[in-house]
Design goal:
By secondary structure, this protein is of the alpha/beta class. The chain contains 15 helices and twelve strands.
């Protein structure tokens, strides 16, 4: 079992909070494995999977039956923990959780996992507001390969994970199974099956979309155009659908963790920015073109960082890109509590001169840091976040300081 930083999240959460812990993330990124690590926190761990017919029957009998099944009337040295896996597939999952939590709060700890966003469905009746804290589980990244403990600040010291680990992550992606196997044949079959499960099972069973063939074509267009500005009208014409349908389908693919959308940042820039978003994939390894793959590689690392920092309560972090009417562009901007923090320009080759737009936008928006992150530079043991001027830095160094 590969170590994950989310084990430390389990420990921190249950040490400090009574709320339910929600783990959401893409298929096969390790949510179930992480949740089962809670067995170290209790001698009474129960795992209930909605896809298991026996487990489903227990849940459908209601909170009172489940409390008896979990022996909540029995004194225990530590609180029992129950894991509800894929519970969002139950039409009344929110109502069930609200009733169970409100009745037995303080007597049991609860973990809820799902391979689609646990807030996507509005079918569950009363809100769960205040009863849970969400955590988004991401695939492996450079920093998680060397650090699985929690640190008080956002960024850590740079650590060299070694060229072999870095190249394996780049080649096979961050999903644990293909990363561990390190086999191109296995990886190809695994990724093909994952794509089919998303379209043929998840979208069919858990969304109201009927046009699955068109959505499958859309997913392929997104893969081929990852990192580019998304022209909704052009794509709609390509697959003979309305622009509204394209927008809705992209939102659904976001919700099922196939892709994620970045918006342009607009505040405090003199010229209005383009309104077209960019779309990236959760699995960068399926992108063939190296430059596009590297940009997606960086985007995935940054998204994991802003999600992780926000979910831990360190502040409110968001990820954007920068582009103005003069087509000056910087690939990424990370904001902290609505203020620009650092910019990142992704370059595959270290021979490229530094992007002048880093200087322009840093002057415009007053970001603290501006990095040109390069793929083909060797690790350098220097703290990138001590730099204030725009600087070219190795990806292996910069990414090792994130999450």
């Amino acid at each position: 079992m590969i170590p994950r930083i989310y084990k430390a999240i389990l420990n921190e959460h249950f040490d400090q909070n009574q709320q339910m812990l929600f783990l959401s993330g893409p298929r096969q990124c390790g949510k179930t494995t992480v949740s089962l690590m809670a067995e170290e926190l209790t001698d009474q761990l129960t795992y209930l999977n909605w896809d298991n017919s026996d487990h489903r029957a227990y849940i459908l009998k209601g909170p009172a039956f489940l409390a008896e099944f979990l022996k909540l009337n029995k004194l225990s040295k530590v609180q029992p923990i129950v894991i509800f896996d894929e519970l969002h597939k139950y039409t009344h999952w929110k109502r069930f959780l609200k009733g169970f939590y409100d009745t037995y709060k303080g007597r049991i700890k609860m973990i809820v996992t799902g391979s689609s966003r646990l807030d996507i469905y509005k079918k569950g009746g009363d809100s769960l507001m205040g009863r849970y804290f969400p955590y988004r589980v991401h695939p492996l990244t450079v920093a998680e390969i060397h650090r699985t403990n929690l640190i008080p600040e956002e960024t850590g010291i740079p650590v060299d994970i070694g060229i072999e680990n870095f190249e394996n992550l780049w080649t096979y992606g961050g999903f644990p199974e293909p990363f561990i196997k390190k086999s191109q044949k296995f990886s190809n079959r695994w990724k093909d099956l994952r794509q089919k499960q998303l379209i043929k099972e998840d979208l069919r069973d858990l969304s109201r979309i009927q046009e699955l063939g068109q959505v499958e074509i859309l997913s392929e267009i997104i893969r081929l155009q990852a990192g580019q500005l998304m022209n909704t009208n052009k794509i709609a014409s390509q697959i003979q659908a309305s622009a509204d349908s394209i927008h809705r389908w992209v939102q659904t693919l976001n919700a099922f963790f196939y892709c994620f959308t970045l918006r342009p940042w607009s505040r405090n820039v003199r010229r209005s920015l383009t309104k077209e978003p960019k779309v990236y994939l959760w699995d960068w390894s399926v992108i063939a073109e190296e430059g596009a793959r590297f940009e997606n590689f960086i985007a995935s690392h940054l998204l994991k960082a802003v999600h992780f920092w926000t979910d831990r309560g360190l502040g409110q972090y968001e990820l954007f890109f920068l582009r103005d009417k003069e087509k000056r562009e910087v690939d990424f901007l990370v904001t902290k509590n609505q203020r620009p923090w650092f910019m990142v320009e992704a370059k595959f080759s270290g021979n490229a001169s530094i992007n002048k737009n880093l200087y322009y936008f840093q002057n415009e928006i007053k970001a603290e840091h501006a990095f040109q992150v390069v793929f083909d530079m060797n690790f350098i043991n220097k703290d990138c976040f001590k730099l204030r001027e725009p600087t070219i830095v190795p990806a292996q160094t910069f990414l090792s300081q994130l999450v």
